[in-house]
Amino acid sequence: MKKKLFYSGLILLLFLFGFYLTSTNVYKMAKAYLIYKQTDDKWHRQLDKQATKKLIDKQVPLYSHQPKMGEQIGTLKIPTIHSTLPIYEGTNEDELEQGIGHYAKSVLPGENDNSVLAGHRDTIFRHLGEVKIDDKLIVSTSAGTFTYKVRKIRIVDKDDRTVIVPKPRATLTVSTCYPFRYIGPAPQRYVLIANLVHTKR
């Protein structure tokens, strides 16, 4: 009789111990699955958000039409030198006499790739050399206001075409003749290269 009770108690003890282990593992597995599910859902929501943004950016162009040569397309504000300057489509002398010229073969400000602007050193850009790394360049157009931050300053030969090459991200390249006080046709170009950091549409 005692032996039977002993075995019954042992079986009950083993059953309770097994139940404890099982319930603990089930709890851990359930907790782990819940954490995985939340992380997975958050990751997928982030991917969906990025994909939607890319789809919207791809489908909806910033500009409804391509500006005509000589048309004013916006303004360039340079807070460092307290200047707000008009931007015209084209870089012929007619446009450069009025303000800044937008190189027509480059993208428009705010668009992905390299938007190239040029101006005369002895008029609108005579203080451009005072602009430093991390200073802001703010372009306002019909598509919105685009804030760029200067990341690089270059001095290149006047025939250097690298200033107009495509870029992997939205970039603003501002160029003028150099040296600033050179008499006659200047042999070099002073170039600001800035990345888009903020868009307001």
Automatic annotation (TrEMBL):
Cited NCBIfam families: class_D_sortase, sortase_fam
Any one GO MF annotation of this record: hydrolase activity
Lineage: Bacteria, Bacillati, Bacillota, Bacilli, Bacillales
Superkingdom to which the source organism belongs: Bacteria
Keyword Metal-binding found: no
Protein name (Swiss-Prot/TrEMBL): Class D sortase
Any one Pfam family match given in the protein's UniProt record, by short name: Sortase
Keywords from the named record: Hydrolase
Organism annotation: Gottfriedia endophytica
Spans through the membrane: none
Hydrolase among keywords: yes
Active site: H120 (proton donor/acceptor), C177 (acyl-thioester intermediate)
